[in-house]
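Researcher: Please translate sequence to structure tokens.
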Amino acid sequence: MSEPKGMSRRGVLAGIGASAGVVAMSAKSYARVRGANDRLQVAVVGLNGRGQAHYAAFSKLPNVEVTHFVDVDALVLPKRAAEFVAKGYAAPKLERDYRRVLDGRGVDIMAIATPDHWHTKLAIDSMAASRDVYLEKPMSMAPAEGEALIAAEQRYRRTLQIGNQQRSSRETRELADLIRAGELGDVYHGETWYANARKSIGRGEAVAAPAHLDWDLWQGPRPRGPYRSNLVHYNWHWFWRYGTGEICNNALHEIDVARWLMGLGYPETVDARGARHFHRGDDWEMYDTLQLDLAYGNGKTIRWDGQSCNGIARFGRGRGTLLYGTRGSALVDRNGFEIFDLAGKSVRKVQAPAESETTGTVGEGALDMLHAGNFVDVIRGRAPALNSPVGEGQVSTTICHLGNMAYRTGAVLRIDAASGRPDNAEAMKLWALDYEPGWEVKA
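Model: Translation complete:
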């Protein structure tokens, strides 16, 4: 992978140093210093997408070593290992079954970047095996899984960071401080969006899974189904059996940011209106265009506009959040923020020193190092709290699941503010999942 634009590895490390105690030494040479008591060993599970960003981030942190690559695809493992070694790192151990890692010794952290349907079970199994967990979003495939994940964290008392990486952005955290200080006045509305130009996934066929893919293990907790020629490795996002749609794939990031900066929890109502407008003859089962509206009892609102197949940008951005306040507004994304007065004049602009990818499928960048760095600092007792704890992750993830429920039932959902549960019986049928016998998700 290429370095984040505008900053070298040493530069990014220096930026993390305030929280991680980094000295002026390259990541590679520091990582090879032996004998330190708090060296952390990491296994990265799932290597086709976000897992690449995970091992890139952890391998650059001081006194952290990525020692295991885990993936059910036998062809992917040596490919990623070769790329990793080419960057100067020690060859990782390769495993196809995560349970072999959990049964062994040495690994301290499980970094999970598998398809959505694996997230909760793999995280719970890892915590039960006394590992700390860095879990890619969405943390669950249904709200009941999130409830089980919270219970498991409390039971096993492990450190669990949810992968809403923008919560570790120094620029977004600076904006949060300014909002709390009254810079925007009362922030009453959040406008969020995502735009891409995804192509058709075509019409697949039910065929035998390729020999290099452990199809049974890929399905894991989900009830067994036939392999399709256009499902793996990315298009599972658009099938209800395995995916959670663009809401949990991308809206989750911006909704989480808007809710955090506005100081909001569960909304009173959730309304989702969407359709499949593009490539209608293919196998994509979900919307590609969706408008999600969240209304709160105090009159505050959040909206997400998702355009999976129309890449029109807003404010020159494929994704972002615009906050409206009674004294001004703020435009924020992964790479900085800008504040405007009520006349729309820019009064403050802060740009991140190193860019993070915004609409790619890997999403590698400086935020990954900051987020992983916060996680590692908490494990070592050097930071007081996680930037993205599981309780906050549950609220944002459940809101996105509720968006899918509203879309699938065609109803405006009224929500219990304490639990996030809708008062709609049809929607509640989607609150929990069915599992393959023997693969159930349990706290």
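Researcher: Any highlights?
Model: The mean pLDDT is 91.
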